[in-house]
Amino acid sequence: MSSEGRKSAVLLPSSSSEDFCKAWCNQLRGGPKELARSFAKMFVVWITTLLLLNEARGRQVCYERLGCFTDIPPWSGIPGRQLAGLPSSPEDVNTSFFLFTKDNIINYQLMLLTEDVNCILADWTGGSSGLYTTAVNNVRIVGAELVYLVNFLEKDYGYSLANIHFIGHSLGAHAAGEAGRRKPGIGRITGLDPAGPLFQYTPTMVRLDPSDAKFVDIIHTHAGHLFFDFAPGILQTSGHLDFYPNGGKKMPGCKQLRVPPATRDINDLMREYRSIACGHKRSLRYYAESIITPNGFVGYHCKTYRAFVLGNCFPCPKEGCPLMGHYADRFSNKTEKEEQKIYLNTGACPPYARWRKEIHVRVSATEIMKGNIDVALTGTNGIRKEYRIDKGTFKPGNTYLNYIDTEISGNISKVEFLWKKHVGHRGYMGAEKVTIVSGENGNVERDKKGDKRMVVGIWIIALYLLGTVAGDEVCYSRLGCFSDGPPWSGVPGRHLTGLPDPPEKMNISFSLYTRETGNNSQVLLEVENANCIAVDWKDGAKGSYVSAVNNIRVIGAEIAYFLKILQGHCFPCSQERCPMMGYYADRFPDRLKMVNQKYFLNTAANPPFTTWRQKVFIKLSGVKKTRGSIYLAFHDTEGNAKEYEIASGVLSQDQVYTKYLDVEVNPKNTNKMDFFWNKTVYTLLWARLGAETVNIIHGEDGHM
């Protein structure tokens, strides 16, 4: 009997060893008969022990293509891996491989659009859709199937192992590790939140580890222990580079699941987590986005996530920082050491990539004040976001620092200092200097000195206040000028600074809805036959509240300008004529005279969409007053006719009624116009109305 067998035999009765010894001693005191009975019982114990030892040697199953599989340690019966059984048969697991290329883009478009690769999907739902413990055992079958595929590619197609990259999620990560263990020399394995239960802190033979490929990178997104903080992902480091976004345990945008009781069965726990799995699946989303964001997801070497949050690992060293995801292999020191811990933060929703900045704000103020210091950053791509730097009590001349993770990639083109003081303070706060350091390279992106009017000193503050009263001004060709002098700012109840954004940045648009077009404003259009015009100025409102308040004036001016158009203030065209929308816009002689010229027109609801704007004057004759509606019908040479309502309600003799019409009949082809009216049911039978004169002004040239 081997020493290993003896050890196993001793451990089997461990739960009742004390009672077993007491019973043996009592049998010896009972004399020969009792001793004989004891020997008989002991013989039974020995036979049982031999059977157990034989069982401890384990069972084994072999398959022709894939080799043999056993259930001896470390595959089962060790701390952290208390499971039994052998893998299912290859037929039951039913591992299938699907090839996608640039000529066959059905799935995985992101990868195939950026690289010319053979993307092979391994589907083993037959072996993973049942109990979690069964799926854990089946990982070895999938790993062996992957090796069978690699051998085929290597032998028949000359594939180099160094060019093979396995990407596995959850149990799939360990299946990739099993393949790497069986077939040394694989180029890269990426583990996307590798499964934790029954793998955590087990021998490397059982789980994914750095020896399974030349380069192994891991993304941990829902990691924890088996008990205490149970989670589906593995917490321990398992690769050369282990990325822990947001600390690796809880992802922003995902609800934290309740920690279940430790007594529950592992299969029940994993079934519950599989049904939700927001954090567990987030690793997939991060990796997918990294493919199209080659400079995003910068990670920082740190001992702990807390050290990262405090900025102890900021900025990146001279050799740079690794990128989490698809481009992790670009890091020059990726395999210098194993189990390197990398930390970074992400957003709560796509796009998830963030870029870390260190921001220093040196404040100037008239006194010690309480409030909040924020900054608004605008990138060269036009994205503007606000960030909290600090809150509490601030002293003049002090510098306050914070680390932010911004969604703005590239350089910062504009920095705004935002101050919100607490109630009870009458002083003024400004930024003397704002410094922004980029985490990727430690470069100072922007070293902005504050407004000279915002420095400490009574006389300079007084000059600042005078300057505010005098006010700055900005003017726009169509809308007029806007000032930041009182009452627009610097008055009680309106302590704000700044001017409105330009109209082009706000991108104000007007959308028309009628009973014919519908879609929006249904309630209003059901009760009234009206033209419902929606004003969209979300680009001017999506920034800070202060900016939106300033932008209200530009919105009002745009609406006033639009009302002038509706009232005909832009009618008819000037002597320079009007531009034509579409292909012939280049015929307009003044097209380059100014930038951002805005022109408005209406179209028909259905093809042909072209309309011609005309102003109609109708002088009535007949009874002095009656109720009804008057219409004008336009006829062209091709027999087409369109009818338009001019006025309705109480109509009076000798009254001239005017209306702007967008006529769908070309004036050059108009050969006839008809006037008619519809009276209401309450109108007297003898009442009649006629048109004494009908005059029409054409918009294109103003002729009548």
Automatic annotation (TrEMBL):
Residues 113-352, 523-567 form the Lipase domain. Keywords: Disulfide bond, Lipid degradation, Lipid metabolism, Secreted. Coiled coil: none annotated. One of its GO terms (cellular component) is extracellular region. GO terms for molecular function: lipoprotein lipase activity. It catalyses: a triacylglycerol + H2O = a diacylglycerol + a fatty acid + H(+). Its main location: secreted. It is found in: Secreted. Its EC number is 3.1.1.3. Pfam families: Lipase, PLAT. InterPro entries: AB_hydrolase_fold, Lipase, Lipase_N, Lipase_panc, PLAT/LH2_dom, PLAT/LH2_dom_sf, TAG_lipase. One of its GO terms (biological process) is lipid catabolic process. The keyword Lipid metabolism applies. Residues 369-442 form the PLAT domain. Belongs to the AB hydrolase superfamily. Lipase family. PANTHER family: LIPASE (PTHR11610), TRIACYLGLYCEROL LIPASE (PTHR11610:SF159). This is Triacylglycerol lipase. It comes from Patagioenas fasciata monilis.
